[in-house]
## 1
Amino acid sequence: MYLRHGTTHDVLACWLGVDRSTITRAIGEVRPLLAERGCTVAPGLRTLADVVEHLGSSGRRAILDATEIRVRRPAQGTAGRDRFTSGKSKQNAVKAMVLTDAEGRLLFCGEPRPGSCPDITQARTSGLVDLLGTGPWVEILADAGYQGLGGQTGGRIVTPPHRKFRKSPPPWYEEMHARDKHAHSSRRIRVEHGIAYLKNWRILARHHGRRENLPETIQAVAAVVSHQQSTTRPFARAV
């Protein structure tokens, strides 16, 4: 109830007929257990290295993206206060890397970084680039924010095509570029569905609590969503 609806501890205590401190203690005990569980990929597979190995052995495609979660602005005078300002939304946020399969099932949700952290930097610091450079062949679709990683991973990360003509492109090229870009977007749209399953949990729509609890909260929600997808949620077959 707390993660799904973002209900305050006071309201939960009133609903369940217990003291507020009981709710706070229960959430503090259960949340790290869910976060430690991780996403359900296959029995015994939880880490990013496990995910890459699983994709390589099964020959399945993955989709990479990042999602922003709005947070409260750090107090005046706090060191690194501006790091949480997102260059995209111009709001205070943290950013988490998300990896799904071709059908939108959640495979991995990384540690959140300040909103000013570029997507490509987050992919590098998470260890994904190193794992792809030395691991099995895996095709991962990504948006333009990850351009440049294809060369570093031997073509394993596929991004939208670059524009070859910056000025006065011929009409046939504009049409071809738009068609190729649309085709790439259509192949990776499922990752937006996977992110939507996370953001539908109100606690992640906008986080009003302490920022130090947000990493555990994100991982806890990802663990529950991933478990639900692997057991009950039907998915349409990817084209």
## 2
Amino acid sequence: MTNSLLTNTSAMIALQNLRQVNKGLNMVQEQISTGKKVSTAKDNAAIFAISTVMQSDVKGFESINQSLNLGSAAVGVARGAAEKVSELLTEMKGLIVAAQEDNVDRTKIQTDIGNLRDQIDSIVDAAQFNGLNFLKGATSTDFLASLDRDSGGNVTASSISVDAYSLETTAGAAVQGLATTTTGVNTNRDSAAALVATGNTFALDLEGTDTQTAGDVWELRIDGRKFTYAVETGDDETDIGQAFKNMLDAAGISGIAATWTAGDGTTDGQLDIANTTGGAVAFEVTVTDGSGGGLGNLAGLDVSTAAGAADALVKIEGLIQEAVDASAEFGSAQKRIEIQNDFVTSLTDSLKTGIGALTDADLEAASARLQSLQVQQQLGIQALSIANAAPNSILGLFR
């Protein structure tokens, strides 16, 4: 290689190598200091973009965890309150059974029943979490449950909806429009009850000329099982009769068969519910304006007379079932929320693991690389020093 005072090729090569070593050394030192091999977009644009999106999802799921925790707590309060109401109604049933005897003080028993009813009101009023009470009203509440991202990057939110289940004891105002007897005779009443023997039919006669008011609530009970239909704008008797038939068909109650016959303009529509089982079945139908609570029949319980005690014994079964149904609904909703919460927690952990695999530095490898580069740096400095000293050999030619 030609020696030159103007161009020191060896020094240039040594300098290039030293610069490359210093660059690698700076990169490794940055990995060690940040703990990441991809901390900015310039490190790896594709990995940085993917990890940033995943990190945003993690933040979203962490917020969802908080929403689900609040939801579980709110529903848990409602479930616990509904279970307590069930216990009080069961205790009330014991008092009602005792009132069936003639040699008891029904007045005192009625006082005890009234106290239990007041306690139920107190529990229902107190069953709120952060102002949300699932035992009052009929609205539903949505709790954010997931963020679903498709292959195109579009994100949609999904929620778990929890319906309120009223256990209020206020009685709804009765409305006209219900006509029923076991023989199907039109009596135009707002409520009717009957004990139907095996082989007989409970006939609900629906007047085609009656105007149905949106918001009215039709309730059919069969041995304590409740079926409810809320009238919507534009509904007529056919909507109500067909709705009840569909609900009974879906329920599949053993020994019960429903048949709906629509009216023709001159005759009323009729829902026939045949009892083919081996025993009498209690039927009850009521129509209210929707202002009452799920335990509205509590307001009318009066065991001070033999007739009132007998009526209360029939109604208490439906009330207990109402509270049990509420407990089951809230229990199921709370379980679903907790399952989703566990899944979101697991998913968040998996995302964090994935982000780490993409961006975290291997500190063991970085440590070994650091030592290697430090040695190369020292050697590079020495090589550059030797190369820079090479032109001094030209002075020997002039001695």
